[in-house]
Specification:
The chain has 18 helices and 18 strands. By secondary structure, the chain is an alpha/beta fold. It has a five-stranded parallel β-sheet with strand order 2-1-3-6-7, with helices on both faces. The longest helix is centred in the first third of the chain and has 30 residues.
């Protein structure tokens, strides 16, 4: 790591240079602002150590000048006891931290490690923001009801108000939460998610609040819960309707007071978190049944967003299919496929109980099975066999196609059952069952 020391005390430089060399770091030296900029132009500096008192110059003013051109480089101020006030001022102007003289080298190394970790996090977060903004607009909609939901979500996103998202399984609740985060003022901070239905009560309590070392048998170190992990950022409480009632009161206090206490802890910690909750349950009914706290419902329901089911937004189906087929092609490296008109009619008639998730899974299955550049009825998942088409008597479309295929193969093989079963990759018993099921007279 390349570190720059800006200090008029060359003796300090010599001492630190030797110490840093032992831990694998390279220390550069500048006595004033001009020399500092000369080094910054030539070297890839990771961290700057800057003395508050810089000879005839003011270190705080030097900090301001450097931050204007090199805002991404963390700066740690070096201060004597008499200049702590100046160091605090420097922190307000963008310094990452400060160390007091005489310098303890281990403390200095800890500060540097923290500074570089913080920089690494910001760089990763910047890449994530760019990725989020570049992702395909799967939430764009032609549907009037869902368009209103998206418009409302975008308006609510810029505030810190708690938001409750309600929708069926697979309808895109997590995607809508991502959309809110993307359009919020907290996009540069963490977005933490937890599925409240994925943990038993005791473990969920631990995941949310964390614990102190020794809080219970097996707690051999401190554990930071998701509330603390999301500090300054956004937290998605997914499947909030499945949260045990005993935990609901604790969640309410966290949201109200913005403070938590770890399991086994003796002190409370202040947090600053924006809450988004999501559920597929009817929380109003649960409130009436006393299985969900009314006060928590209203605390979460700062803004309510109801996602319509896919069966109620069929006008988005064409766009969703195209977007999902593109995504599947990119992820699997398989050529992008299209759907046949017959499949399109089935999709329009189908009720989609699993919503967008079911649509994506169906397209992934069909893309994998299909041997053509166009997805046909026979490429759809077996679950579609249970769906009866109103257009084809009592048989589903897939069953009708299977019946036609068996008849054609029988004719080709001159009603030879063994050859027909072999060609269709099924046993003779299975073939006889299907002949009976479809009413095919193989002796014609």
């Amino acid at each position: 790591m390349h570190i720059l020391l800006i200090d008029d005390n060359q003796q300090l430089f010599e001492v630190l240079k030797d110490n840093f060399s032992y831990v694998g770091h390279l220390l550069f030296y500048a006595r004033n602002t001009k020399e500092a900029f000369d080094v910054l132009k030539k070297e890839q500096i990771c961290v700057i150590l800057l003395d508050v008192r810089l000879g005839e110059e003011n270190g705080v003013e030097t900090l301001e000048k450097i931050k204007k051109q090199y805002s991404n480089i963390p700066i740690i101020m070096i201060t004597g006891y008499a200049t702590v006030e100046a160091a605090v001022k420097a922190m307000k102007l963008g310094a990452f931290d400060f160390v007091k003289k005489p310098i303890d080298f281990n403390t200095l190394c800890t500060r540097i490690d923290s500074a570089t970790e913080n920089l690494k996090y910001k760089e990763e977060n910047k890449k994530l923001i760019e990725k989020i903004k570049d992702e395909s607009p799967i939430l764009a909609s032609k549907n009037y009801e869902f368009s209103n939901v998206l418009n409302t979500a975008k308006k609510l996103a810029i505030s810190d108000i708690s938001i409750l998202i309600i929708g069926e399984n697979g309808s895109g609740k997590e995607l809508l939460a991502d959309y809110i985060y993307k359009n919020s003022n907290r996009i540069s901070e963490k977005f933490v998610k937890i599925n409240c239905a994925a943990f038993p009560e005791a473990l969920l309590d631990n995941e949310l609040f964390g614990h102190e070392k020794g809080a219970y048998t097996g707690a051999e170190s401190d554990y930071i819960g998701v509330f603390e992990q999301a500090n300054k950022g956004t937290l998605l409480l997914d499947e909030i309707g499945d949260m045990p009632t005993t935990l609901q009161a604790k969640i309410l206090r966290v949201i109200q007071n913005q403070e938590i206490r770890r399991i086994g802890g003796k002190t409370t910690k202040k947090i600053d978190v924006r809450f988004i909750a999501a559920t597929n349950k009817n929380l109003i009914q649960m409130v009436e049944e006393k299985t969900f706290r009314e006060d928590l419902f209203y605390r979460l329901n700062g803004g309510l967003l109801k996602i319509p089911a896919l069966r109620n937004r069929k006008d988005d189906l064409d766009d969703l299919i195209d977007i999902l087929l593109t995504e599947i092609s990119n992820n699997t490296k398989m050529p992008k496929k299209k759907i046949s008109e017959e499949v399109k009619r089935v999709f329009i008639d189908y009720k989609w109980p699993g919503n967008i998730r079911e649509l994506k899974n169906a397209l992934l299955y069909a893309t994998t099975i299909s041997q053509d550049n166009k997805i046909q009825i026979e490429d759809l998942p077996p679950s579609f066999e249970l769906y009866g088409s109103k257009n084809l008597s009592s048989l589903s479309i897939i069953q009708q196609r299977e019946k036609e295929l068996i008849k054609k193969v029988l004719i080709r093989n001159k009603n030879n059952k063994s050859e027909t079963a072999k060609f269709l990759n099924m046993s003779r018993n299975t073939l006889y069952l299907k002949l009976k099921k479809y009413g095919i007279n193989s002796d014609e």
